Amino acid sequence: AVPKTRILATGGASHNKKILQVLSDVFSVPVFTIDTANSACLGSAYRAIHGLVAERNVSLADVVKLAPEPRLAVTPTPGAEEVSKP
User: Fold this and answer.
1) Which of 22, 57, 62, 67 sits at a 20 to 30 Å CA gap from 46?
2) What is the span of the domain harbouring residue 13?
3) Residue 77 and residue 61 in one domain
4) How many CB atoms lie within 10 A of CB 78?
């Protein structure tokens, strides 16, 4: 099951595990990536398609159901949420 809250990292930095780990620890959520070249552009294209069909009650989930499956890259480091609490 995919968590309700997650980060989908795209672009060049999505290949850097240390950056992904910081994202995961700061936001206390798992970080996923897509093994697709130009994945940031792909996401923008899906949003554009959704904008065109949204008035016909087509959900974003329906638009992206054939998209490449994101893969789990990193999860929050245990105890990291304690460091970021005020």
Assistant:
1) 22
2) 1-34+70-85
3) no
4) 8
pLDDT at 83: 62
pLDDT tens for the chain, 86 residues: list them: 556 788 988 888 888 999 999 999 999 999 999 887 777 788 788 889 999 998 899 888 888 887 878 899 999 999 887 665 55
Task: Look up residue 37 and give its two tokens.
Answer: 């070249």
Do 27 and 41 reside in the same domain of the chain? Answer: no
Q: How many domains in the chain?
A: 2
Name the E strands within the chain.
7-9, 31-33, 71-74
Whether 3 and 26 share a structural domain: yes
Place of tokens 């060049």: 12
The order of strands in the sheet holding 71-74 is 7-9, 31-33, 71-74
